[in-house]
Amino acid sequence: MQEASEIIPSGMLSVIGRRNSDYKTACLEALEYCKTVGIEDPVCEVSNYLFPDSRVIAGHIQALEFLQKNSKKFSFARVKMLPVSGAFHTRLMKSAMQPLSEALESISIQEPLISVYSNVDSKKYRQPEQIQHCLVEQLVLPVKWEQIMHTIYERNKGKKFPYTYEVGPGKQLGAILRSCNLKASKYYSNIEVSEDETNEET
Q1: Full strand arrangement of the beta sheet holding 10-16
Q2: What are the φ/ψ torsions at residue 72 (nearest 5 degrees)?
Q3: Where does it primarily localize (predicted)?
Q4: Bridge pairing between strands 44-51 and 164-167
């Protein structure tokens, strides 16, 4: 992925939108802008679905800068360039697919013992072949975190939500869960790990 990132100047833009935000139109206009400045086959697309009204858009730097300058036009509440070197989870990462596929073929992948969900389709991993396929595909396809949250916490009426624990520094995943499913978030807990505990283990 690092080598793919170095081929074309690209990046990722975090966007907090509003209910009337039109991400599709915004990306299309950014693509048209890129063509006017001489970029052939530009890329600008949603690369992460985080929670309602929150997306990460990735692609050519010029496209992302266009979106920053025109954020009000597209009803974006807040935009921020992420400190990464490439447009991950877009087709600009296509050159990394074959090397990753070859690396995965050289190792033994087992069926998961616990539930593990794919970023590609928000479904549970079932078979080793499916895991290998999805791990390669997720290089160029958007992360469907919001959809995974809905899959995990979908419940029939009256069925209790599971306890959810976020282990480590920060509570960002808890905040995302709250935005996706307020009722499920009531069973969320954060377990912090102090530096002293980490040092004792090492």
Answers
A1: 44-51, 54-60, 10-16, 78-81
A2: -65, -35
A3: mitochondrion
A4: unpaired
What one-letter code names the amino acid at 164?
T
The pTM (predicted TM-score) of the whole model is 0.88
Q: Give the integer Cα–Cα distance in Å for 135 and 99.
A: 12
Nearest to 74, CA basis, from 13, 15, 23: 23
Domains of the chain and any CATH numbers: 1-90 (3.30.70.250), 155-192 (no CATH)
For 144-192, write each residue's pLDDT tens digit.
999 999 999 998 888 999 999 999 888 999 999 999 999 999 999 999 8
- Cα separations in angstroms, 133 against 83, 116, 125, 149: 28, 15, 10, 22
Q: What per-residue confidence (pLDDT) applies to 201? A: 55
